[in-house]
Amino acid sequence: MWQNFKNGFIKENPVFGLYLGLCSSLAISTSLNNAIGMGMCVTIVLIFSNVLVSAIRKITPDEIRIPVYIVIIATLVSIVEMIVHAFMPELYDSLGVFLGLIVVNCIILGRAEAFASKNPIGASAIDGLGMGLGYTFALVLISVVRELIATGGIAFYNPFDATQIIFGFNIEALAPYTVSLFSGSVGAFLTFSCFAALFAFIKQRSAKKEKEAKK
Amino acid sequence: MELLSMAIAAILINNVVLTQFLGICPFLGVSKNSKSAVGMGLAVIFVIFGASLLTFALYKLVLVPFNIEYMQLISFILVIAAFVQFTEMFIKKYSASLYKSLGIYLPLITTNCVVLFVAQDNITQGYNLIETMVNSISVPAGFMLVLFLFSCLRERLDSADTTASWRGNPVALVVAALMALAFSGLAGIV
Asked: What are A91-112's pLDDT values in tens digits?
């Protein structure tokens, strides 16, 4: 079970390893604030959708399983969207259209199809948590790099009250060298490609080591 | 004139892939050769146009009169999934050759976020029927343009000698970044 959980971070990281959920991870990673907010929303939807799909896996007819999954996911996303709108209006504004687009985030449908439809409820919940945190982890990595380069500092607000900064710093020395390009699409693609290459490098090295160990 | 500038803005300036980060999955997945890129692009234009008209009608004729706008997300995604399924069955029945060339891309379109985005965008922007039609053709046309250009570049990339860890998607994303830079230069034309 621990293995299921750990897999989501490095080896099968949904974003860098499997290239799933790229749209939101590129668009939302402009600031740490958005990244954590989006990551949490996706994790919550992922855990509940995995649990529900797993709970009904024995009574779902095979032919219509995809529409069934989509309805479950869309319902959960609508609920999350309403909760965020009601209690975290600033987050709702900055995530914008991407909050609703969690429905078509391939990670969620992918895990429902590949894992939750074949495994018991407990394991599916853990898998959802692991994958969701792996996604959050990837978003946080990209957003920290982008926010640092674009603004020269990091700021993380209390999601329930945007005037209260929980955690933040500014690096004075970086201020003259900020590149605003990194808050836009060019920076998103560049940062992402660097991390993707790094993860591919780690994977290839560990595969090599395993091969040598077998010899 | 306004409609024309709206179309140009949607295709070149606010390009879905390069500035709004939608449809990245097919953008990376189906861009291995230019032929399949064009096929995918055409399928996406057709599905988005049809699905947008259907969701527009659904919103104006059902959701608003019955005061159930909060069902928007669920009903839209169902309409899109059903529409994609019907298109697939229809094409399979009436044109075997078209099905062969488009068949594998059609089911993938359900999870293409551009479709849901355009359907929702038409509503949130408050477009009327004509504007909805223009928007739902020009947005996927921008997607197709970028997908085609990207696939041509990728055919060259495949034969290039890249370091092992950068091979495949990472180096393709660097190319995407350069394309985004080039497209940002078009920002002033409308």
From this structure: 888 888 888 888 888 888 888 8
Nearest chain A residue (CA) to B166:
A197
Give B-chain residues touching A181 at CB under 8 angstroms.
Answer: 181
**Number of domains comprising chain B:** 1
Q: What is the pTM of this model?
A: 0.85
- Asked if residues A55 and A208 have their Cβ atoms less than 8 Å apart, the reply is no
Q: What are phi and psi of B121, to 5 degrees?
A: -60, -40
Q: Cite the DSSP H helix spans in A88-118.
A: 89-95, 97-100, 106-111
Examine residue B59 and state whether it is found in any structural domain, yes or no: yes
Q: Which domain holds residue B42?
A: 2-184
Closest CA to A27 of A17, A37, B50: A37
Residue where the block lists tokens 């965020």: A84
Residue B97 falls within a domain, yes or no?
A: yes
Instruction: Give the count of beta carbons closer than 10 Å to the beta carbon of residue A168.
Output: 12
CA atoms of B36 and B22, how far apart (whole Å): 19
Question: How many residue contacts between A and B have a Cβ separation below 8 Å?
Answer: 123
Nearest-CA distance from A160 to chain B in Å?
A: 23
Which of B155, B134, B46, B168 shows the shortest CA–CA distance to A16?
B168
Distance CA A177, CA A155 (A): 18
CB A124 within 8 A of CB A53: yes
Tens digits of per-residue pLDDT, A28-66?
888 888 888 899 999 999 999 999 999 998 888 887 888
Taking contacts as CB-CB distances below 8 angstroms, the residues of chain B near A71 are 74, 78
Q: According to DSSP H, which parts of chain B are helical?
A: 2-8, 24-29, 34-58, 72-94, 96-102, 106-109, 113-124, 129-159, 169-184
pLDDT tens profile A135-179: 898 899 889 888 888 887 777 777 676 667 777 777 777 777 777
- Contact residues on chain B for A69, CB-CB shorter than 8 A: none
The answer to whether the complex's ipTM is over 0.90 is no
Give residue A15's pLDDT.
79
Domain ranges of chain A: 2-214
* B117 in a structural domain: yes
Among chain A residues, the shortest Cα distance to B15 is held by A185
B67 within domain boundaries: yes
